[in-house]
Amino acid sequence: MSKVKVLVTGGTGLVGVAIKYVLENEPEGSPFKKREGEEWRFLGSKDVDLRKADDTLKFFQEYGPTYVIHLAALVGGLFANRERKMTFLRDNMLINDNVLHASRLTKVQKVISCLSTCVFPDQVPSYPLTEAMVHLGPPHDSNFGYAYAKRMVDVQNRAYKEEFGCNFTSAIPTNVFGPNDNFDLKNAHVIPALIHKCHLASVNGTPFNVMGDGTPLRQFIYSRDLAKLFIWQLREYNDVEPIIFTSGISKQITIRKVADSVAKAMKHNGKPIFEQKPGDNGQISKGASNAKLMSLIGPEYKFEFTPFDKALEETVEWFNANYGTGAVRGGLPSN
Ligand code: NAP
Ligand code: GDP
Question: Where is the NAD-dependent epimerase/dehydratase domain (predicted)?
Fold first, then answer.
């Protein structure tokens, strides 16, 4: 029997490492466990710079993946996106174009690309956001470079299907967090940035400063839950239409609640201080529906979302165990 080769681009990042963890740590019999006959390869930027077309194609020709889960991207929180819109647009357009083009040329049987709820319009008539709303208006101004690069993947997937019959699709996760996140103080997403800030506040006896006024709403998914959903999508889903991956609109919480939960999980004694600078709130809500996902994922998967507080506890545990060892990532590549 010939081997099934699954290539995970972005395999060294938050979500890629979570997929590896799930494949290796699920109990025998779990549908999320690595299957016999499968070879999984977790690609990082040191293996191939996917912004480079020739290097990307050469890698695909040599490795010959059967399937691709495409996670690689320049990724950052609100403040990184706001400062480097052109870099987020160009790097991500190059990476996506090179991966999809190489996948077509080397006859990859399925590509799942990871988008983000940033792709949705900022102004919508009503929430929750659904898969049908991706192209219905401009994204929020704070991250339009990243958002348009990601949104274009959905356009590419449809065009690849129509012209070449490719089986390319995408997933749209809400904000992700978990072990092995980027914990940069300035460039990270809100949960890892606040964990790091809270740690420094506790150690140095300084205030635990949080950006904005705490009112924006965000909907989170634990990286290990998201990993399971990618494995399910790889095994079961063959439609170009994207699927939103999230725990559901009722689980949306304010940034104030996030900050309080981080302080509690970090056993920090002080209260979060909101800096309240105008413009620092970003998008007010990106609340999305998981109705499509829940209607499709079969009972044999026995999939359940990890409760937010438990996922946060596991993330904090990982941070505390790894801080100061060199394993905690920070920063972003420069231009
Ligand atoms: P991450 O931790 O920052 O990891 C990014 C990954 O992409 C790393 O493996 C990195 O490789 C790789 N990469 C970056 N530039 C590359 C390049 N030029 N060539 C090759 N590889 C490159 O990001 P993540 O949070 O896991 O994100 C994974 C996917 O989820 C992304 O598509 C992201 O847009 C999406 N997403 C993330 C969130 C979130 O809250 N984190 C939310 C929604 C969607 P090295 O580490 O080796 O440099
Ligand atoms: P977004 O969901 O794409 O906007 O990305 P983030 O994960 O960066 O979340 C941004 C939200 O968290 C905004 O409402 C920010 O005001 C709030 N926030 C509060 N403190 C921080 C922080 O230290 N870093 C980040 N990235 N966001 C913060």
Answer: 6-240
